[in-house]
Amino acid sequence: MSATQPKDTAVVMLAKVPWNFTWQSDHKIAAGLAKRGYAVSFVQPLPKRMPAAGEAAFALAHWLNRPEVAGYRHQPRPPGVDLVSPMVFPDINRAFKCANRVALVPRLIRHLRHLAMGRRQTVVITYLPFPLPMAVAGALAPDLLVYASFANWASASLATRRKMVEEELFAEADLVVANSPLLVERARRHHSRVYHWPGTVDFERFHADAQAVNRPAAERPVRTCYFGAVGSHIDVELLAKVSHHTALRILGPVLVPMIALAPGSELPGMVPYLQVAENLKDVDVLLLPYRVSELTEGVFPAKIFECFATGRPIVSTYLPSLLPYERLVYISRTHEEFVENIGRAIDEPQELGEQRIQVARENTTDRWMDALSNWLLTALAEKG
Fold it and tell me: Residue range 228-245: average pLDDT?
């Protein structure tokens, strides 16, 4: 039998975030695999619950693929990536489960098989350890099942609200890819084939497009920026405090109630991924204001190497996954220390910026996508 090749392989991604959202690992992996010749079907997140009050716009944007309805922007979709918006119900009651099993999931499976037509083998990559994604993965009967463990689903704040089948997913998966030390360690307690896939960076874009510009003396107040979605994982109280000490910019959708920011704070909303770096040209310090919790113990910020590529100082709350980079990141254990570290960062030695850039060069998206592709092809070949 000939060697396994990307052109022979269809990849179905059961994603954790929509395509038209802030650019995350889901997007990088889909785009990277398509670039290497795989046929990629990006399945928008399968529902875990009914929309809460005030979430109707998000649900409508998801089903219609109309991100502007929810205040999002269209993200570029490269050749080789098909976007699939499944019309299924959350598995929360008998009627919904029956409708999914009898009609909706079979229709989704037929569509995904049609998209994979002409490919010799199928890989399913799922981010979601829940019954409905497991049912979809099982119905596809893939040649390779990959669990992308990129969230600390076992944390109390998530596990208590949804039925999870993570242990079953570990048992069924052919390999596991995890992105933080905590998740790698936990996965290795359940599975013998676990790979560490950290955040990555489109280095040329972030390094070149974010090159600093000289601002007039009148505009010299320290300018800080957080880019990404503002959800329950972000410390909005801390952002409010920072806004009273610096000129704060938030690039991304705000999904939770925001505490009043100081006058002059900038909230341009979500910008397409290709425009993020150019919006950092006049920024002095980048922020990672994660809320410290059991959930964020397992977080490895997907944007960390994008931050490094700019060379800018980075001030973060305490994340265990960033401790290997503590000489390059100002890690803060309190709100007061966070604000103080912004002041320290302004006067840092130039060589720290150069060291960040070098780390980013070593963690390009192309490098890590080559590694992921090799893991997939090796596992497929071993299964025969």
Answer: 95
Per-residue pLDDT for 71 more than 50? yes
pTM, entire model: 0.91
Q: Which amino acid is at 21?
A: F
Residue 158 pLDDT: 54
Q: CB–CB of 42/84 below 8 Å? A: yes
Domains and CATH numbers, the chain: 6-198+364-383 (3.40.50.2000), 203-361 (3.40.50.2000)
Q: Which of 155-164, 191-200, 290-299 has the lowest mean pLDDT?
A: 155-164
Token pair, residue 263, equals 């006058």
